[in-house]
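Supplementary Note 3. Input sequence used for the single-chain structure prediction.
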Amino acid sequence: MTTQLSPHFTLEELTYSQVAARRGLDNAPHTSDLANLARLCETLLEPARLILGVPVHVDSGFRSPAVNGAVGGAPGSAHLVGRAADLLPIGMSVHEAFDALRSDALPFDQLIFECQAWIHIAIAADGQEPRRQVLIASGYAGHWTYLPEGATP
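The predicted structure, written as discrete structure tokens, is reproduced below.
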């Protein structure tokens, strides 16, 4: 059974994890995380799809603490509460998609160009104003470096 969170995104794709599947880790969100996931889809993922004019693949959405630890995610990651997704545009370069999203007025809390390979996009916590923080990330699992856009390492 498929659970639609929005017209183009399902609960199943936002909770699927290759790492969880390989290691037998539970990646089921709590009830409170479901509202964040739906808000993430409606506020950022659906509009991003329209802005880009191409479908987007969610590579990582919600992560349980076990999955987040296994992938080297930050201890306070927005993925842990369903407020973030790592995405890949289908049919355009990741860099071009990142430029288009940061130039738009999307109410993102964070937009991160990660390792020149994918885009992390997150909504603010419910009731908080989005920071519109744009970062460039490099490194590897557990050893990430985040710099403000335009900063030199």
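The domain at 4-148 is CATH 3.30.1380.10 (Muramoyl-pentapeptide Carboxypeptidase; domain 2). The radius of gyration is 15 Å.
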